[in-house]
TrEMBL record:
Listed PROSITE patterns: TBC_RABGAP
Protein name stated in the entry: Rab-GAP TBC domain-containing protein
Pfam families linked: RabGAP-TBC (PF00566)
Coiled-coil ranges per UniProt: 433-467, 683-724, 764-811
Length: 888
């Protein structure tokens, strides 16, 4: 009877109404209509008092027609057959409600055009899922809810467009469990999604995220029966859907947290439909941007939630800031998993219902509602305690009253324009931070380059210092070598002077000997003596020539040494010139005026060197001229030989040979002297070059010294800049302190001003109370006078007043200004309930009026005290009794 194909849904409430109504039902036949069609079976009820049409149970409504309604009061009790039929109907209804398969077929067949596969996944998920409406399945209102949802689902497009607000309100109250899977698809427009056709291909394709997905599946709903079995049906379904989406959207791929959303969907529908709904959630509900690698949307949500918390819960936001407790520490999982990890599955399903209907707005509202729920405890906890509270205590409190939580969330106002503005502000802040980070990276790069340049300059300065030291050492060695050469030159000069002196003496002796030879030609004896003397002189000359030859050898050796030294000096000069070139290339430009001064000094040294070189050249020229004159004189002497020499040819031949040898020695000596002079000239030139190099070294030294001074100046400027920065930072801190002090003073002044306003308000209230007391006394006196002047029956007056009070209570069940909204106007509230006699009342009033006043005053006081209303001075029952005593 209760199979899936021939399900007979019986609307018990209508039958109960007809049985309990005055009109009776005669043989209500059950007709199974439209079998094989997507709609359900129908109930046809015929009655004498009303006409009913056959309709599906999901859209069943009682339509009373204007038939005969005359016998409404004929039968007051149902017959035994009718009661038996009622019992059978109740039993059938109970069996139907307890049959999960029939409910599943109801939810599947009620949606025309949206057929669902009867897979094992959907069966298990439907059996394992829970809902807040399932706990009330026994209630008759649940069947009405199913009827409404069946009609909505059957004609979804028309109902959604025409009754959008009513459908949203129904979604907020909760979608029934067996309608939830199809309604979720309808809400996100995933029933005919093209992604379903791609799902089979995605399952067959390999994904690069498979290992990560396998690793995280075991941590998704580990305590749920459907997912806790390793490599079971639930885990495989979860793996397939997540892998399919990682292939469908390769930019997002797989991100932790999406598995919980997929698991919640698989509890309500098969894999293909869960995949289609997941794609819609990602694309149309801002979740795709939230799961991107940058997670930019999550940052926007955190910024918006923090702004909402500062607006609705400023004390809690200030406490979070004081504890350095960021919004992402407790709310990131709420947005990434849509509360599936923080709350139980029934409440998470409720949130998912509204999320698919209204979007991300409900997540912000539920988050604020949960913060309001735990505000009192959070204000007393530190960071670690708040983390534990968000993990354990707050979800338990939310589970204790889910309806209150959702209702509190619905009552929170959500401004979409403000949220868009906050989103723009967040992106502006992020772009500014990105620019600051870029500038910071650029500054760090420049700082690194400057440090590298400083290190290079330090290395160059060290190399220049080493070169300078080496140059000074080599210059000292050169000076020492020059000093040794100068000493040797001085010795050569001294030897040259002695040789010149000996040569002059020899020339004088030669002249004297020639005179003697001319005088001794007269006699042979005299000539022999002269020859002997000449032989002795020749021997002396030979000895002198030998000495001169030895000295010539020494001079040549010295000349060779001087040549070697000259080559060494030239090599050194070449090295110094290369150093000079490198120094010119490396040394930076300095002051032009200083360089001009150095250039003038160098030119002066060069002029002095040129003058000394000119003097030396003149001396060399003079020596050359003297030498030429000497050669000419010797040539003349050789051209005019004596007449005596012709008589003695042998002697003359011997004398010519001796004379030629002497002449050769003298020529060599003169040539040696000339070479010596040339060597002196070269030495002078080398000294000039050494002087130039020294000048250049001095210039380079000055440049290095100025460069060191400039580096020192730059370092001093850098230190001064750092000092200024530190002073500025210190001043900034002082300004911050002063600002905080001023802000504290302003807050204190503001609090004092508020206290003064409160005191003034209290004084005004006291004066108002005094005026009211005086007015009450005046009215009391007037009432006493009127009571004394009139004698009317008290009982009748009390009865009239009681009737009037009843009418007033029926007309005004609650005061217009309730103590909940305006607690400071409690006295006015009492005045509304107190009936004060006016002047034009009849003279039949009696003391019953006072009793009514007391009774109504006490009831008003009880009404105020039940709502926790306290007066401006903390007035309680004693003050009210005083007022009543005055009235009495």
């Amino acid at each position: 009877m209760f199979s899936v194909n021939g399900l007979l849904f019986i609307k018990l409430d209508y039958v109960l109404r007809q049985i309990r109504s005055p009109s009776s039902i005669t043989k209500p036949p059950l007709v199974n209509c439209a079998q094989g069609s997507p709609s359900l079976s129908c109930l046809v009820v015929e009655s004498d008092g009303g006409c009913y049409s056959a309709m599906p149970p999901t859209a069943m409504r009682l339509e009373a027609s204007p038939c005969n309604n005359n016998n409404n009061n004929n039968n007051n009790h149902a017959s035994g057959a009718e009661l038996e039929l009622l019992a059978k109907l109740e039993e059938a209804n109970r069996l139907f409600e307890s049959d999960a398969k029939s409910l599943n077929s109801l939810s599947g067949n009620s949606a025309s055009g949206h057929s669902r596969k009867s897979s094992d996944t959907s069966q298990i998920s439907l059996a394992s899922g829970t809902s807040s409406t399932q706990d009330r399945i026994e209630d008759g209102g649940e069947e009405d809810l199913w009827s409404v949802w069946g009609g909505i689902v059957n004609n979804w497009e028309v109902n959604w467009k025409k009754y959008n607000q009513q459908v949203r309100e129904l979604v907020q109250k909760g979608i029934p469990l067996h309608f939830r899977g199809i309604v979720w698809q309808l809400l996100c427009s995933a029933t005919d999604a093209p992604e379903k056709k791609l799902y089979a291909d995605y399952i067959k394709t390999k994904s690069p995220c498979e290992k990560v997905i396998r690793r995280d599946i075991a941590r998704t709903y580990p305590e749920h029966d459907f997912f806790k079995e390793k490599d079971g049906l639930g885990q495989e379904s979860l793996f397939n859907v997540i892998k399919a989406y990682s292939l469908h959207d390769r930019e997002v791929g797989y991100c932790q947290g999406s598995g919980f959303i997929v698991g919640l969907l698989l509890m309500q529908m098969p894999e293909e439909e869960a995949f289609a709904v997941l794609v819609k959630i990602m694309q149309d509900y801002r979740m795709r941007d939230m799961f991107k690698p940058t997670m930019a949307e999550l940052g926007v949500c955190m910024f918006q939630l923090e702004s909402l918390v500062s607006e609705h819960l400023p004390d809690l936001n200030q406490h979070f800031q004081s504890q350095n407790f960021h919004t992402s520490m407790y709310a990131s999982s709420w947005f990434l998993t849509l509360f599936t990890t923080a709350l139980s599955l029934p409440l998470a399903c409720r949130i998912m219902d509204v999320f698919l209907s209204e979007g991300m707005e409900i997540i912000f509202k539920v988050a604020l509602s949960m913060l309001m729920l735990g505000k009192a405890d959070l204000m007393c906890l530190d960071m670690e305690g708040m983390l534990k509270f968000f993990q354990k205590d707050l979800p338990a409190r939310a589970e204790a009253d889910p309806e209150g939580l959702m209702q509190s969330a619905y009552n929170i106002k959500y401004n979409s324009k403000k949220m868009k503005k906050l989103e723009k502000e967040y992106y502006a802040i992020k772009s500014k931070e990105q620019e600051e980070m870029t500038e910071l990276k650029r500054l760090r790069t420049e700082n690194k380059q400057l440090r590298h340049r400083c290190e290079m300059l330090e290395e160059e300065s060290k190399a220049l210092a080493d070169r300078l030291v080496r140059g000074q050492v080599s210059r000292a060695e050169e000076e020492e070598t020059t000093f040794v050469v100068q000493r040797e030159l001085d010795a050569l000069r001294h030897t040259h002077l002695e040789t010149t002196h000996h040569l002059a003496l020899a020339n004088e002796k030669i002249r004297s000997l020639s005179l003697m030879m001319e005088e001794s030609h007269t006699s042979r004896q005299s000539s022999i003596e002269e020859i002997s003397l000449k032989q002795e002189q020749l021997q002396q000359r030979e000895e002198m020539i030998e000495c001169l030859q030895e000295e010539l050898v020494k001079v040549r050796l010295r000349e060779a040494e001087n040549d070697a030294l000259t080559r060494e000096l030239r090599t050194r000069i070449h090295e110094l010139e290369e150093d000079k070139k490198t120094l010119r290339e490396t040394t930076p430009d300095n002051s032009v005026a200083h360089l001009q001064e150095e250039l003038i000094a160098v030119k002066l040294r060069e002029a002095e060197a040129n003058l000394s070189l000119k003097d030396l050249r003149q001396r060399v020229a003079e020596l050359s001229n003297q030498w030429q004159r000497h050669l000419q004189q010797d040539h003349k002497q050789e051209s005019a030989p004596s007449s005596d020499a012709l008589s003695t040819p042998k002697k003359l031949l011997f004398w010519e040979n001796r004379h030629n040898e002497t002449q050769r020695v003298e020529e060599e000596l003169m040539t040696t002297r000339l070479r010596e002079m040339e060597t002196l000239t070269e030495v002078k030139e080398l000294r000039l070059k050494v002087m130039e190099l020294e000048t250049q070294v001095q210039v380079s030294t000055n440049q290095l010294r100025r460069q060191d001074e400039e580096i020192k100046k730059q370092k001093d400027l850098l230190e001064k800049g750092e000092l200024r920065d530190r002073d500025a930072a210190a001043r900034l801190l002082d300004e911050h302190r002063r600002y905080k002090d001023l802000e504290t003073k302003m807050q204190e002044e503001l609090m004092n001003a508020r206290i003064r306003d409160a005191e003034k308000t209290q004084a005004v209230v006291e004066l108002t109370q005094k005026i009211s007391q005086l007015e009450l006394k005046n009215e009391e006196i007037a009432t006493e006078g009127e009571l004394r002047s009139h004698s009317v029956d008290d009982n009748e007056r009390i009865r009239e007043l009681q009737d009037k009070v009843a009418d007033l209570q029926a007309e005004f069940p609650t005061p217009i200004a309730s103590p909940d909204t305006e607690p400071w106007k409690w006295l006015d509230l009492i005045k509304q309930f107190i009936i004060i006699p006016s002047e034009d009342t009849t003279k039949t009033e009696s003391s019953g009026t006072l009793k009514v006043i007391v009774l109504k005053s006490l009831s008003a006081f009880d009404f105020c005290s039940s709502r926790g209303v306290v007066g401006p001075e903390g007035l309680g029952q004693e003050k009210l009794l005083e007022i009543l005593q005055v009235l009495a």
